[in-house]
Structure formats: structure tokens, C-alpha cells
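Could you help me review a protein record that somebody else here produced? This is what I was given.
***
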Amino acid sequence: MLHAAGLADPATGDVIALIGPSGAGKTTAASSLGTVLGYVSDETVAVDAGGGVHPFPKPLALKQRDAVRKRIVGPDDLGLEEVRRPLRLSRLALLDRRDECVTPTVATVGLEEALGRIIEQTSYLGSLPGALQRLEALVRVSGGVHVIRYHHAADLVEPVSDLLRRPAAHLPPAEIHAAVAPASAPGHIAPGSYTRTHIDDWIEVGGEVIVLVDGKVSRFSPLGSVLWAALHT
């Protein structure tokens, strides 16, 4: 589950998840772009093991002018489009909202650069088998993580539409289901010897090893990554 606004191409069902913390502009983006694109959610994008998205088109809590109170408005009242076809995640984007006026830009980065920011905006990730491998596979389908820098919600229309227009590489379900955690360490370790401890999952991205243990993600230093590779034998 991603803490994100979800918008979909009504013709294809391809979904972009606009990920960000509270205040990043997810609800504003959903209410502005949902009249042109399909409205999936303004808060939670739920992705299953095969990359399918389960819509959550809840009412939106829109800020009032006093910036304190919020007004609850249903998606129909806002004229948001409903997508009536199966949905699949095709783009992962991080919202980088700026207080000052900036020209909207899209920068694409790898998982190693965006991992921390994405992990902070997930729920239930550590409970999934092969969690890191699932996430890495979704990033590959997305063509990387797209960081959108913007100021006004209207600035998002063009970059988001452009990202959704790009050909989507749908993820075969088996590619995620095949994610298997390494075997547990042997029961007996000879004195002076070392082996890998049991972990939940691990991946290698950008030459670095990232591991998931007891729901916590850790990134090995370059030396740690070398030792991890050596301990395979």
C-alpha cells in the first residue's frame, strides 16, 4: 500500500502513483487531474502481487481558504472520472512540491536513490514475501522512479499525462511471485567462520546490497556489499 494519489489512463487502465507525505499535494492533484484522467484514490494506492491496482475512490478532504478546516466532497460532485477497466500500476512518481514558483520538471532516478523516500510512504511492505524484490520489479516496470518538482497542482497536468502516455511494460505476475528469500543460515558455524544470517529479503541495486530484516530496511556500505557477495560461498 502506497501513501499516494492514484490517477489512471481511462483508455488503458494504466495507473500512476503520485507518492508523497502529507502536504505534498496528493489530494489537490487528484481533484485537479481526476477530471481529465481516471480517479483511483487521493490517499492510498493498493497494489497486489501481480501489479494490479485496487481503486479506493473515497471522498476528498479539500482545504478551505483559512487553511485550517477541510471540506469533504464526493468524487461525483467534483466531476472526477471513473475508470471501469482493470487497473495496473505503470508509473511510480515522487511529488516534490515547492513553496516558491518553479518550472515543473521530471527527473528519473533509480531505486537506490529513492528507496528511503518510498519506504517511508508504504504500509504492509515488510509483511510481504520477497517485498524488496516486488518493489524493485515495480520500479523496473515504471522505468525508474520519476521525481516531479512543481509548485501549483495545475503544473502537474502535463508531466503526469506525459508519463502515462509512455508505453507501459506490464509486469508478468510470475516475475513477482518468484521472489524467494535466501535460505536460513546453517545451524552450526565453525569457529572463525562467517555466514549470512537469515533475512526476509534482499536485492542488489546500483552495486549496493539492501536487506529487509524483521520489517526494517538496511543498506550495506560498499565493503558490506562485497562481504555479502563473498559469503555466498
